């Protein structure tokens, strides 16, 4: 049930009402974040005391325990764990790979298994390589040219896209579905160019799926660093007899028990209207998951603290949700939405931070035109903090399942230029997060939460009066 | 003399004229920068093959030779060196400092001499410390409490300022004038908290001046890292008898010959209307000067290449100027303006990049209201590249001396959050510059140059017709 709808509408048409109070509140939030923010210290612990938090790992459980304890210490109205079963995939001993020009003449190259991949045979896998620029090339080549080989997906991210997430979207099908598709043509394995705009030596993992491929037909898939990809491509052009060898030892185990971590400030006037702010607590295992998505978790936690510390009591219920298993299963996001539906909870707003802890530039917003306009009407309030982007677009993977008509979903949009330098790789580590940039993100999120709470949202189809 | 003024005015009032052509040209510029930009390679050479380029040093001369050779290779209409005498200050052997709780109980702390400072006595300088929050505290304390001591300026940069350059401006008087002022009260030396928003172990140098202090009254001044400053402050609060020791070996030598490096594409229609794009080639000596201001130099060089490669022939004369000696003398900027005035050259526009190689956010503009409005009218053209800031403000130190009524001066404004982590310190190094961020800056500059060239500027007081 929505309340104060008429008031909300009045406010949409008079955006300068109470401007001074709003300006003061935003200033208080940003000042608190930049002088006394807790996000960076929390991230330091998550990254340097716990580390990579792959679903089902000991570290993931440590992260659940740690963040719950931190939320407990904030004096919220409720803190609880929401059980969710998660897949457990383990990398095993590190991967090994080389390019073989001829027997005895080899060059090692950095690879890592894609998350969810099967292992190679225990002695590894060696075969000729056929390079493609995407899944669509497979059909043109046909089974004759693919069977018995390793398919090498080498379509790079498009450097001319200013939003690097668009460049990622333009490539990631190779990683996610490349093995399932190549397997249909008799390929023995798959090597995918890392989703990275830089030339460097870090392989970038990420999720992949076999679809309905029977277990005995699944072929192993690994990512190769961008420098490695360029070397492999150059080598097979010069020497079609070159072979590629790789060995990986990963394994899918049984699902295990895990948790979403949830903290709540219960609304003072409309406790049944729920606002969610969150990130995902799991990460890949190669780095320490600082940008993806330790940053989003600690920013979301700090949103509640920032509002408390600045003396703002939400009228609506505000929850921080640290979702488990975004990376390889989305179980946490799905579970949270399922429980919410079963309980008949009324979520009016959800905001996710899962694009790195870089300087915030604005929000992508998935909402009705009226709600989008209301938020865009707050543009001037954000201008002093150099927050300029309020565009229609996707929000976040974990909050997506909550989507209902009339609800406002949003994603924090930090600067994206450096994100894929680190994404899912060994160098997604704490020293690459800047304290101020992280804090500005938390303050930007808290500011939007404050405005949504104060003015409510506009449920398009349910307008009364 | 300005031309096509009426046309320029028409265009101001019809900003969508030729939008498609402009959109295409900007897209071509950004695409070229992001796929084939040369700025990063040039910066790699400047930073890793040459290194820090303090005025008068061998490295500064190597940078002159290298950048001239690179400009020569671009097929410009003219490339030349403009002679300018520059001060030569040398650091000598590295500084050394410690806090002495009592004789024999000492803790070393990282310091560096401020640029232009005198040395300590050859055995170093040891004295009690008096902490102040700024120059204004000196008068309150008076000579009795200051004479014979080391004055410790410890006012930190204000973390709540979103534009970190404002926080810098709020502190830098301590560094620039702290020694001259403290010397008047009989202080023996000065230690200044590094201009850094982070807590770390890097001391940050920077220019200082003695004003009209006689040579024999000049006292040595050094910067201490922020961690060192916090330790020193805590120590003297607990133990007023603690002493500080430092030794530095710097020296001001005679002025030496150096050069501004200049390249030009001569205007095809209005060759006498000159546009300048530039940065400063000198840097401090502690790091390799990648952000300050190698980035601005290579971006400026690439502006001319980007326009050439995209097939755009400027109607007006476009010069890249790599200014010498911005850091400790401003001789290059002053010389360029002096020569331009002596020759009666007509500069209509100058753009400087000297705020780091980070993601560009826009421009600060020093111009008449009409010119500011014309540039703000191009906002939509820049939106696809997430360039949102077009505000009135300062431009750049080197181009400042060119200022005349009717002229447009502008500064590229990159994201400023990380700039002072590196500014004037040992960690201003190449690995902290992101290739895409650097390239986006070059493309943003080239885009503004293109628009200024195409539509001209509006000289307020000289409107004809």
Secondary structure blueprint with pairings:
The structure is a homodimer of 465-residue chains.
Chain A: H1 5-13, H2 19-36, H3 39-50, H4 58-72, E1 78-90, E2 96-102, E3 105-108, E4 111-113, E5 125-132, H5 136-146, E6 150-153, H6 164-169, H7 172-183, E7 189-193, E8 221-224, H8 226-238, E9 243-247, E10 251-265, E11 270-280, H9 290-309, E12 316-323, H10 331-342, E13 346-352, E14 360-366, H11 369-376, H12 379-382, E15 389-392, E16 408-414, H13 419-422, H14 435-455
Parallel strand pairs in A: 5-6, 6-7, 7-8, 11-12, 11-13, 13-16, 14-15
Antiparallel strand pairs in A: 1-10, 2-3, 2-9, 4-8, 5-9, 10-12, 14-16
Helix pairs in contact in A: 2-14, 3-9, 9-14
Can you describe what's shown?
2 copies of one chain form a homodimer. Chain A has 2 domains: 5-86 and 255-462, 3-Layer(aba) Sandwich (Aminopeptidase), CATH 3.40.630.10; 92-249, Glucose Oxidase, domain 1 (3-Layer(bba) Sandwich). Chain A has 465 residues and is an alpha/beta fold. Helices cover 35% and strands 24% of the residues of chain A. Chain A has an 8-stranded mixed beta sheet, sandwiched between helices. In chain A, strands 3-2-9-5-6-7-8-4 form an 8-stranded mixed beta sheet. Chain A has helices at residues 5-13, 19-36, 39-50, 58-72, 136-146, 164-169, 172-183, 226-238, 290-309, 331-342, 369-376, 379-382, 419-422, 435-455, and strands at residues 78-90, 96-102, 105-108, 111-113, 125-132, 150-153, 189-193, 221-224, 243-247, 251-265, 270-280, 316-323, 346-352, 360-366, 389-392, 408-414. The interface between A and B is medium-sized, with 27 and 27 residues. Chains A, B: This is Carboxypeptidase Q. Chains A, B: Homodimer. The monomeric form is inactive while the homodimer is active. Chains A, B: Residues 1-20 form the signal peptide.
């Amino acid at each position: 049930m929505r309340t104060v709808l008429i008031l909300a509408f009045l406010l949409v048409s008079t955006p300068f009402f109470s401007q001074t109070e709003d300006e003061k509140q935003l200033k208080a939030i940003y000042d608190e974040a930049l002088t006394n923010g807790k996000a960076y210290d929390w991230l330091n612990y998550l990254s340097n005391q716990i580390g990579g938090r792959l679903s089902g790992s000991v570290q993931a459980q440590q992260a659940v325990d740690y963040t719950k304890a931190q939320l407990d210490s904030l004096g919220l109205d409720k803190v609880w764990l929401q059980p969710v079963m998660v897949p457990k995939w383990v990398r095993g001993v590190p991967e090994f790979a080389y390019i073989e020009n001829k027997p005895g003449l080899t060059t090692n190259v950095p690879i890592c298994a894609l998350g969810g991949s099967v292992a190679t045979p225990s002695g590894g896998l060696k075969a000729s390589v056929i390079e493609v620029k995407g899944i669509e090339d497979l059909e043109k080549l046909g089974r004759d040219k693919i069977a018995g080989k390793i398919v090498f997906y080498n379509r790079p991210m498009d450097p001319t896209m200013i939003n690097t997430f668009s460049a990622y979207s333009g490539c990631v099908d190779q990683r996610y579905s490349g093995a399932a598709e190549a397997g249909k043509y008799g390929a023995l394995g798959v090597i995918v160019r890392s989703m990275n705009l830089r030339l460097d030596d870090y392989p970038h993992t990420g999720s992949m799926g076999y679809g309905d491929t029977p277990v005995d037909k699944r072929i192993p898939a690994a990512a190769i660093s961008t420098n490695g990809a360029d070397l492999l491509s150059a080598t097979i052009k010069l020497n079609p007899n070159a072979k590629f060898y790789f060995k990986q030892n990963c394994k899918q185990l049984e699902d295990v028990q895990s948790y979403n971590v949830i903290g709540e400030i219960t609304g003072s006037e409309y406790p049944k209207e729920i606002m969610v702010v969150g990130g995902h607590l799991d990460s890949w295992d190669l780095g320490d998951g600082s940008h993806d998505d330790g940053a989003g978790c600690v920013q979301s936690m700090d949103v509640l603290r920032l509002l408390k510390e600045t003396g703002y009591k939400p009228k609506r219920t505000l929850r921080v949700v640290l979702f488990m298993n975004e990376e390889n299963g989305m179980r946490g996001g799905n579970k949270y939405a399922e429980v919410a539906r079963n309980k008949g909870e009324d979520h009016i707003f959800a905001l996710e931070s899962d694009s790195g802890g870089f300087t915030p530039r604005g929000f992508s917003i998935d909402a009705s035109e009226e709600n989008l306009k209301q938020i865009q009407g707050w543009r001037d309030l954000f201008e002093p903090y150099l927050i300029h982007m309020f565009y229609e677009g996707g929000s976040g993977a974990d909050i997506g399942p909550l989507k209902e008509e009339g609800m406002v979903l949003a994603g924090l949009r930090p600067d994206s230029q450096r994100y894929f330098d680190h994404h899912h790789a060994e160098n997604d580590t704490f020293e690459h997060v800047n304290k101020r940039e992280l804090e500005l993100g938390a303050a930007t999120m808290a500011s939007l939460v404050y405005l949504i709470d104060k003015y409510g949202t506009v449920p398009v189809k349910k307008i009364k009066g």
